[in-house]
Write a sequence for this structure.
């Protein structure tokens, strides 16, 4: 499987989704994709097909709660909100991301 | 994803995939809208949106993979595959399923007995709150589950630990059956509050209550509750039975209710057919010992009560313990506490969750636990065998696994498929095992009889027990299937496909065979020891004739005659029967041998010269004239009793008693005196003869008494006296055929006591078999399983060697090509087999050392560590496995070197 270079690094999707929802409140899947793309100035692109399984998994793990609702265009969409457990998970993922980044920076600096 | 979530998904599988589909559809529409807003045509937009979505269908599959339904689908596929694989090798399949079935069936059948007798809770509300009060600390004897009835009444008034306390008693009563014949049945006698304390509910009508349990019968006569089983058997489950009358031990009673079908009484293994008020005991005994003004009463009962909420058994023990000295002094005869055995008796509160201790529970718990141990070994053996079989099978199929790994099967999937095969075998085995257990239980139950030839054990196969055993077996099979499965997954396709001989040597197979041989050795040795014990028990001289003596115990106690008149009646019967041509001789006795019960008392010798100064404990019996002739017990000196001797001032000693009372001198003509005036009984509560001084008139051959597995006790015989005759005497009838004896007895009875029923006739041989019931059952079972174990070991070894020969075909071929003779190759294979056997025998001997303890008390006349038996068993095992290795060895010897080498 060849990944395009701006696909999201595996494992960071959850972090980005949690962060987005922590800021944005109640959002549907499409809005989450759009939000991540806009904030990253199109540097990051969510692999759209993998987003929904990921959202389902996160909902089942209790990080997100989901419910069906209507968009402004009166379309049926599934809206996600972050839960308390999700916020805890977000903190864990942010910390581990920081560790990863600082580790990579050190290697790049001294290698 | 968690298993739980997956499981949730299976119930809303459609919902989940629907949701994902709808979500994705929404996403595509939004994306297309955006693209259209940016200037694209709707078709282009749709295409672009789908492209951006990535591999839409592939993603859909990944998403759906998360469904248990899909997971189950593949699992079902694995099962189908497993079934197909099993169908391809039917011999392996049948062997494995039969093996599992034998393991599960045997364990369920034996555990049903064990559970029913010792572990099952009473089917009443909160059985864990039930507690009983009994006597403990009775010298070397077992605790007594009964206390005086009047003590129960007093406790009921003063105790604070129990909500209420009730009295229960077991009695034998005669009831006329449908064919008009009167037979003995077990009845439960219960104080008025008994059923209320249990919280039991009737199926029909009502149960015994306080208004029924009054002295001298309630106004409307004695009421009776019948068991559900009796109601079906005797009355065809007719609901109009309420209000009907029935004659019980000569007294008309009215049926007022039927117990619930789940209620089998308080005595595990004994199911009373009838329940009557406790006061009915005065009818059965023909005298009122219950309502006498004195605080002591000859009627003892089991006391069972329900603890108050928050009161523990220990609390109740403390309360009862505080007043026990006073209670025992007040409610027992002074002689009771003077008896050395009862001097330190204490009241003790025990759990009655599983009911009251019953004869069967006391008598058969040790043999049953031993039996359970044996069948547990069989279960382990079966699992090892199946696992070994699967290992061999796996080896044959390694090519297939290699190919499948090469074309991309994951390890997990291979393991899963292999486990599915184990599971199919386990399930089929469990189903067959259930059938075996069902018949096995019915086959086993008749072995566990009351030695008095009374009712057999009453137990039903239990579903909960089956579920427990089957779960265990399926779990073990899967567990044992896991290792071969894991190895199956480890196949390296490259190596395997390249060469068949390059595969690494298996050592697992040999370990399996060694374990099987070890377990088989334990089973074979146990079976041999038990069989030899049974041969000893059955073959050892008993001191009486077994085949010509028939026993009959009619309920003469309900007849109006008492004392001397009763004795005359018995004597008339004996004389009349003895006149018949079909009878050689007849007599009456108080006790018959091999019933597990005997009375003992301490005696002193009165003699000038050398006598034992201290008392000697002797077993006592009261026997009528002609007893020794009828029993075929020899009189060595003096004579036996004569018809006019009806007092306790003469006695006959057996050799053992004479030798200990009068060492080095003749006993006949000397005097013996009772040292204490109260004897102790084992298994019964019959009164003892009055204290006496008596003259020894005869010296009899030693004979066994209560138990066959004890040497003949020192015994003293007295004539039957009027006070002994208060209870029932047993007729002993000696004749060449049982039928002739029965005919003669029936004629005499019709003439002399026409109202008396005929009850079960049994020869002493039959009584012996009943007494040896559990011994016989365990011997048959262990012999059967020893045979199964030998067969399993042979199969295991055959499988191991077969696959080892196939595996080493190349090596053997090279050896043959280099000039190894047939003999060398044969020796090589046999050596392989013998090594496994050697290791197994070593392990088995060590295991025997630990297994020796539990089996010891079931043995008679042989030692646990009997070297001959162990050597013989090992030799037998070696013979069996060598026979099993003959075919693989021959195959190895006939390997064609050219073809074997070319195959690589």
């Amino acid at each position: 499987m060849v990944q395009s270079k701006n696909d999201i690094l595996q494992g960071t999707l959850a972090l980005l989704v949690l962060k987005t929802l922590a800021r944005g409140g109640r959002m549907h899947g499409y809005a989450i994709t759009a939000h991540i793309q806009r904030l990253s100035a199109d540097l990051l692109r969510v692999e759209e097909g993998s987003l929904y399984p990921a959202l389902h998994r996160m909902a089942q793990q209790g990080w997100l709660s989901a419910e069906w609702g209507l968009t402004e265009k009166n379309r049926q969409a599934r809206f996600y909100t972050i839960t308390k457990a999700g916020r805890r998970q977000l903190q864990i993922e942010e910390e581990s991301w920081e560790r990863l980044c600082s580790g990579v920076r050190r290697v790049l600096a001294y290698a | 994803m968690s298993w739980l979530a997956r499981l949730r998904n299976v119930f809303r599988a459609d919902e989940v995939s629907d949701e994902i589909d709808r979500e994705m559809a929404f996403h595509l529409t939004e994306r297309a809208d955006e693209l259209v807003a940016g200037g694209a045509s709707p078709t282009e937009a749709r295409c672009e949106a789908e492209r951006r979505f990535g591999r839409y269908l592939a993603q859909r599959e990944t998403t759906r993979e998360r469904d248990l339904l899909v997971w189950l689908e593949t699992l079902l596929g694995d099962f189908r595959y497993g079934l197909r694989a099993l169908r391809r090798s039917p011999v392996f399949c049948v062997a494995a399923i039969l093996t599992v079935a034998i393991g599960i069936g045997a364990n369920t059948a034996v555990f049903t007995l064990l559970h029913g007798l010792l572990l099952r809770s009473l089917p009443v509300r909160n059985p864990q709150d039930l507690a009983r009060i009994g006597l403990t600390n009775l010298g070397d004897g077992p605790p007594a589950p009964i206390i005086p009835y009047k003590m129960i009444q007093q406790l009921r008034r003063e105790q604070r630990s129990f909500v209420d306390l009730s009295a229960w008693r077991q009695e034998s009563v005669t009831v006329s059956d449908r064919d008009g014949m009167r037979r003995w049945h077990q009845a439960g006698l219960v104080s008025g509050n008994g059923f209320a304390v249990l919280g039991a509910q009737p199926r029909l009508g009502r149960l015994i209550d306080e208004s029924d349990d009054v002295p001298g019968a309630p106004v409307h006569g004695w009421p009776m509750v019948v068991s559900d089983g009796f109601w079906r058997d005797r009355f065809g489950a007719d609901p109009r039975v309420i209000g009907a009358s029935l004659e019980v031990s000569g007294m008309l009673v009215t049926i007022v209710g039927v117990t619930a079908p789940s209620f089998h009484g308080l005595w595990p293994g004994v199911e009373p057919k009838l329940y009557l008020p406790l006061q009915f005991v005065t009818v059965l005994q023909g005298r009122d010992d219950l309502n006498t003004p004195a605080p002591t009463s000859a009627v003892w009962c089991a006391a069972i009560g329900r603890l108050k909420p928050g009161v523990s058994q220990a609390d109740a023990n403390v309360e009862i313990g505080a007043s026990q000295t006073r209670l025992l002094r007040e409610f027992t005869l002074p002689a009771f506490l003077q008896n050395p055995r009862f001097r330190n008796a204490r009241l003790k509160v025990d759990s009655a969750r599983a009911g009251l201790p019953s004869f069967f529970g006391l008598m058969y718990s040790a043999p049953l636990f031993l039996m359970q141990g044996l069948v547990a070994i069989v279960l382990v053996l079966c699992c090892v065998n199946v696992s070994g079989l699967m290992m061999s099978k796996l080896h044959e199929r390694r090519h297939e696994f290699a190919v499948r790994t090469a074309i991309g099967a994951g390890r997990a999937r291979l393991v899963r498929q292999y486990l599915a095969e184990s599971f199919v075998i386990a399930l089929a085995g469990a189903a067959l095992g259930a059938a075996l257990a069902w018949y096995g239980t019915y086959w086993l139950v008749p072995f566990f009889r009351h030695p008095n030839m009374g009712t057999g054990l009453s137990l039903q196969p239990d579903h909960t027990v089956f579920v427990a055993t089957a779960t265990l077996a399926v779990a073990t099979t899967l567990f044992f299937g896991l290792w071969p499965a894991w190895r199956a997954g480890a196949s390296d396709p490259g190596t395997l496909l390249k060469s068949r001989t390059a595969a690494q040597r298996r050592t697992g197979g040999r370990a399996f065979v060694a374990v099987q041989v070890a377990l088989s050795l334990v089973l074979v040795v146990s079976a041999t020891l038990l069989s030899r014990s049974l041969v000893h028990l059955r073959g050892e001289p008993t001191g009486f004739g077994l085949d010509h003596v028939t026993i009959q115990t009619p309920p003469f106690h309900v007849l109006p005659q008492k004392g001397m008149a009763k004795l005359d009646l018995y004597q008339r019967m004996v004389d009349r029967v003895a006149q018949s041509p079909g009878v050689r001789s007849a007599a009456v006795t108080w006790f018959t041998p091999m019933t597990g019960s005997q009375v003992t008392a301490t005696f002193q010798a009165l003699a000038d010269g050398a006598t034992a100064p201290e008392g000697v404990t002797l077993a006592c019996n009261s026997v009528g004239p002609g007893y020794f002739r009828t029993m075929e017990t020899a009189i060595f000196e003096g004579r036996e009793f004569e018809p006019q001797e009806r007092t306790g001032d003469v006695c006959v000693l057996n050799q053992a008693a004479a030798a200990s009372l009068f060492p080095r001198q003749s006993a006949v003509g000397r005097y013996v005196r009772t040292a204490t005036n109260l004897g102790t009984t084992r298994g019964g509560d019959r009164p003892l003869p009055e204290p006496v001084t008596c003259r020894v008139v005869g010296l009899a051959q030693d004979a066994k008494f209560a138990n066959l597995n004890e040497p003949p006790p020192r015994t003293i015989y007295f004539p039957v006296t009027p006070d002994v005759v208060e209870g029932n005497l047993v007729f002993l009838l000696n004749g060449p055929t049982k039928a002739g004896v029965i005919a003669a007895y029936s004629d005499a009875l019709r003439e002399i006591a026409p109202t008396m029923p005929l009850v079960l006739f049994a020869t002493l041989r039959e009584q012996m078999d009943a007494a040896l019931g559990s011994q016989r059952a365990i011997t048959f079972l262990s012999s059967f399983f020893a045979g199964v174990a030998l067969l399993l070991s042979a199969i295991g070894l055959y499988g191991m060697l077969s696959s080892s020969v196939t595996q080493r075909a190349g090596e053997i071929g090279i050896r043959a090509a280099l000039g190894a003779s047939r003999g060398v190759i044969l020796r090589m294979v046999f050596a392989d087999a013998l090594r496994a056997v050697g290791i197994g025998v070593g392990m088995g001997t060590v295991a025997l050392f630990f297994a020796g303890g539990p089996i010891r008390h079931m043995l008679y006349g042989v030692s646990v560590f009997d070297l001959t038996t162990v050597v013989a068993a090992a030799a037998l095992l070696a013979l069996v496995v060598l026979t099993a290795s003959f075919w693989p060895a021959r195959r190895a010897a006939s390997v064609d070197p050219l073809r074997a080498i070319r195959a690589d």
User: Anything to note?
Assistant: The longest strand of chain A covers residues 64-70. Residues 13-110 of chain A form a domain with the Arc Repressor Mutant, subunit A fold (CATH 1.10.10.10). The longest helix of chain A spans residues 84-110.
